Amino acid sequence: MKDKILKDIKDSLMRGDRENVTKLTKAALDAGVSVPEILNNGLIAGMEIIGAKFKNNEVFIPEVLIAAKAMHAGLALVEPHFLKCGIKPVGKVVIGTVKGDLHDIGKNIVSMMLKGSCFEVEDCGIDVPTEKFIETIRKSNADILAMSSLLTTSMNSMKDTIKALKAAGLRDKVKIMVGGAPVTQEFAESIEADCYAKDAAVAVDKAKELLKR
Q: For residue 59, what are the CA distances in angstroms to 41, 43, 49?
């Protein structure tokens, strides 16, 4: 029964069936399936397959988004049990779309996928000024700052934030990941970001790598 319910959670998540993921996650908890098993063999397993399919152009942003929302529904049920089960966040990420940019779909997908991989995520939202990023990093003692830009006109806000982090003495305390449609590896290097992620699935892998540096 346990294997079946975990497979059903995974399959429902991949279909983006939020209602069924919620129902099945509740059923798994009620049946005594452990939180790590629900998380790793149900929710994360399903999202990892979606991430791999996205990398291979087998699914696209709309499918990733509905799968991420389904995962978020399941996470909402298991997160309260994390402390009891000894599940600790693997790292802390501050995320936001930079000043001058109101796009949030990509950022939201990255945020949900990071949460699904046991990162603690503080989402600053959209049109985030440099000062808010700095204040949030100070308060949260974050490991990673993830900045998104979907407009060429807002890309320099990333550069301004990195400069401000240096001036505030925080640059050496946080790793910086950047992404978004107009952002490139070359741009990331030119502003001295630690890494560039071309999509949400890559962002999770890169975040894990950054924690090891």
A: 21, 18, 10
Burial class (CB in 10 A: 0-12, 13-18, 19+), 37: middle
Is residue 200 classed as helix, strand or coil in its secondary structure?
helix
* Rg of the chain over all Cα atoms, to the nearest angstrom: 18
* Residue in the block written with tokens 């000043």: 99
From CA 80, how far away is CA 46, in angstroms rounded? 21
pLDDT band of 40, cuts 50, 70, 90: confident
Q: Which helix (H) or strand (E) holds 175?
A: strand 175-179
Look at the block and give the residue holding tokens 């808010």: 132
- Find the largest Cα–Cα distance for the chain: 56
Tokens of 54: 């996205």
**Residue 122, amino acid:** E
Indicate the pTM of the whole model. 0.81
Q: Which amino acid is at 80?
A: P
How far is the CA of 102 from the CAs of 129, 149, 157, in angstroms? 12, 9, 13
Q: Which residue segments constitute the domains of the chain, with CATH numbers given?
A: 2-85 (1.10.1240.10), 91-212 (3.40.50.280)
Rounded (10°) CA dihedral 212, 44, 128, 161: 10
Digit-coded pLDDT (tens) for 192-212: 999 999 988 889 899 999 999
How far apart CA 194 and CA 191 sit, in angstroms, is 9
